[in-house]
Write a structure and sequence with these properties.
The chain has 9 helices and 9 strands. It is α/β, with parallel strands linked by helices and 249 residues long. The structure holds S-adenosylmethionine (SAM).
């Protein structure tokens, strides 16, 4: 999510930390209100959703929250990282949700290009956190279009991601908020970043490709979402998305 020391271990964009077992604790030091942000996605889903797709499921922290909030939902989680898929599978099994979860090792950029049907179609909701910002804006738009196509009438899409500050001054303020968060959790941004891996482009994902919140909302509208909204925001982090009208095809 930021530049990192050269000598660190090579990882895929989005895996963030060199050691996958450190992800759950370190991400909570790195990102202010990580649990609240993911919780906002889960809370803004219809509790009776029966088919949900998650893009970039990582270690499954959002998956678990979504399955708790939507007790009858079957969840398909896509991630291109074999390490993440192995890790999340054992977590889901330990939580007793294996019968409601299916992991698919795939690049969601391929899915956006209609090249991966393994994930299925006809979802009541699509969710994602901290993953889509690795795509170029051109691919974000394609992905939003594919999400729109895959949603059932009345379906909903929520994404939590860092957004591009609208000015250099705001960028400083947002950075300060991150630093203060780390300090209030007994560490520093530098220390947390020292646990990160080094990532090159992999598949469709690159280093951070941030867009402003406004640009994201425009892309969602261009992709065909009738309604868009921002249910949660904290400085440079936001939960945003849209939904499909009940009458839409
Ligand atoms: C920062 S992690 C977030 C995981 C989880 N959603 C969370 O909020 O804790 C981002 C995940 O997205 C995955 N990812 C990034 N780009 C991807 C792509 N193009 N296709 C599939 N997975 C991708 C990474 O492997 C990683 O597991």
């Amino acid at each position: 999510m930021q530049s990192m020391p050269e000598e660190t271990i090579e990882i895929f964009p989005g895996e963030v930390f060199a050691d996958v077992t450190e992800f759950d604790s370190s991400i909570r030091q790195l990102l202010p209100y990580y649990d609240e942000m993911l919780g906002a996605i889960a809370r803004c889903l219809p509790t009776d959703a029966s088919r949900i797709l998650e893009l970039g499921c990582g270690t499954g922290e959002l998956s678990l929250k979504v399955m708790e909030c939507c007790p009858s939902a079957q969840l398909v989680g896509i991630d291109y990282s074999p390490r993440m898929i192995t890790f999340v599978r054992s977590k889901i099994e330990s939580a007793g949700y294996a019968h409601r979860w299916r992991g698919v090792e795939m690049d969601f950029g391929e899915w956006a290009n209609n090249q991966g049907s393994e994930a299925g179609t006809g979802f009541d909701a699509v969710v994602s956190s901290l993953a889509i910002h690795h795509l170029s804006d051109e691919m974000k738009l394609k992905l939003f279009g594919q999400i729109r196509q895959t949603l059932n009438p009345g379906g909903i899409f929520w994404n939590a991601d860092p957004v591009l500050p609208e000015s250099p001054q705001l960028s400083e303020f947002y950075q300060k908020a991150r630093e203060e968060w780390c300090n209030s959790h007994g560490t520093t941004l530098e220390d947390v970043r020292s646990k990160m891996g080094r990532s090159e482009t992999h598949g469709y994902s690159h280093h951070d490709q941030l867009a402003t919140l406004d640009a994201h909302l425009q892309m969602l509208k261009t992709a065909g979402f009738e309604s868009v909204a921002v249910p949660w925001k904290y400085y440079g982090l936001a939960v945003f998305g849209g939904w499909v009208d009940m009458k839409s095809g």
